[in-house]
Design brief:
The complex is a heterotrimer of chains A (86), B (93) and C (163). Chain A has helices spanning 2-27, 31-51, 55-79. Chain A is an all-alpha fold and 86 residues long. Chain C has seven helices and no strands. Chain C has one domain. Classes of the chains: A mainly alpha (86), B mainly alpha (93), C mainly alpha (163). Chain B binds chain C through residues 49, 51-56, 58-60, 62-64, 67-68, 70-71, 73-75, 77-78, 80-81, 84-85, 88-89, and chain C through 30-36, 38, 66, 70, 73, 76-77, 80-81, 84, 102, 104, 107-108, 119-123, 127-129, 131, 134-135, 138, 141-142, 144-145, 148-149, 152-153, 155-156.
């Protein structure tokens, strides 16, 4: 019973956190900080997949979304300017 | 409001209506639904471990029952990598 | 792009073996636990990308050429298709063998007894016929493909980052 209540609370909290982190990713001016926010969003999304009992998708999401996309973004940011033009 | 914004607003409203109705018609998570229960699911759940020998049913389905799907996925990845290497190749001066 | 600071390099040196071994574990036990070739390959490619971002592409290109990675990727694809075609080719030698493309020829048949011995039992690392081999080939494709994408992109942008 307690376990069900906990899982229901996590089901509500994690999507709200995903939305909050996504809004951070849009509004941050420093591009590396925005890339880290996108990475955190993917990490939370993979946590949600894991709670929904899809561990395969969770592993793929962590690897692709939270790591490789961030690596590509950091490579692109280091090759260009660091700040967004207002 | 310009015409472009009007079109965008109408399109947004249509998509929002479809999304809301889709979310309302979704059956609850984790509950057994008698009428939307395909027979193929039951066959796969019953027979995957015996027919493929794989303990993990998802891998058994992905690599045995749907091997062509995995082959196409590998082909897509291969083609994408070939395109990226072609795009970023070192030009000889 | 050149390397990052000494802190990043030290953390990478500590974390790289663990991430890589975990990815290879996911590939090797893909038919027993959640995971498989694609997921494990993505994790291994993540560990390699960590080294790439920390040490810089010029140092990596000195160690690994992208031609070798292309060979690895093509080898994975050839292994996958070859495993698919063995199920067809075995019909030519054993007329009673029920073969087809991507047939799991190591289990569930009585024509070739020695193959049946290999893929027997459940919850065993040596089970599931050709599924572990296909996992390995898909893992090779994914590791080499994703890492070579990152490597080529990083090496192409090294001049802009500069000096």
């Amino acid at each position: 019973m307690l376990e069900d209540t906990m899982i229901n609370i996590v089901h509500i909290v994690v999507p709200i956190l995903i939305v909050v982190v996504s809004i951070y990713a849009i509004y941050l001016k420093d591009l590396i900080a925005a890339a880290i926010a996108v990475s955190a969003m993917s990490l939370l999304l993979s946590l949600e997949f894991y709670i929904l009992q899809a561990p395969d998708v969770a592993i793929a999401e962590v690897g692709l979304g939270a790591f490789l996309t961030t690596a590509i973004l950091i490579i692109a940011i280091r090759a260009t300017k660091k700040e967004e033009e207002a | 409001m310009s015409r472009r914004n009007l079109v965008a607003a109408i399109f947004f409203a249509i998509v929002a209506i479809f999304l809301v109705f889709g979310a309302l018609m979704m059956h609850p998570f984790g509950e057994f639904d008698e009428e939307h229960y395909p027979e193929m699911d039951q066959y796969i759940i019953d027979n995957t471990q015996n027919e493929t020998g794989a303990d993990n049913g998802v891998t058994g389905v992905v690599f045995d029952y749907r091997g062509f799907d995995t082959l196409g996925e590998a082909t897509v990845l291969f083609t994408a990598v070939a395109g990226v290497i072609l795009l970023f190749r070192r030009l000889k001066k | 792009m050149s390397g990052m600071s000494r802190i990043v390099k030290t953390i990478t040196n500590v974390a790289f073996p663990f991430v890589m071994i975990y990815g290879l574990y996911i590939i090797a036990r893909g038919h027993l636990i959640p995971g498989g070739g694609f997921q494990g390959g993505v994790v291994v490619a993540s560990s390699l990308a960590m080294v790439l971002v920390a040490y810089g592409s010029i140092w990596i290109v000195g160690k690994v050429k992208e031609k070798n990675l292309s060979v690895l990727e093509s080898l994975g694809a050839i292994c996958f298709i070859g495993l698919g075609f063995i199920g067809v080719i075995l019909i030519l030698f054993y007329s009673s063998f029920e073969g087809s493309f991507l047939k799991n020829f190591l289990i569930g048949q009585d024509t070739i007894p020695i193959f049946n011995e290999i893929g027997k039992g459940i919850s065993n690392i040596n089970t599931a016929g050709i599924i572990p081999l296909m996992n390995f080939s898909v893992g090779m494709i994914v590791i080499a493909g994703l890492f070579v994408i990152l490597l080529v992109m990083a090496y192409a942008t090294r001049i802009k980052e500069g000096k």
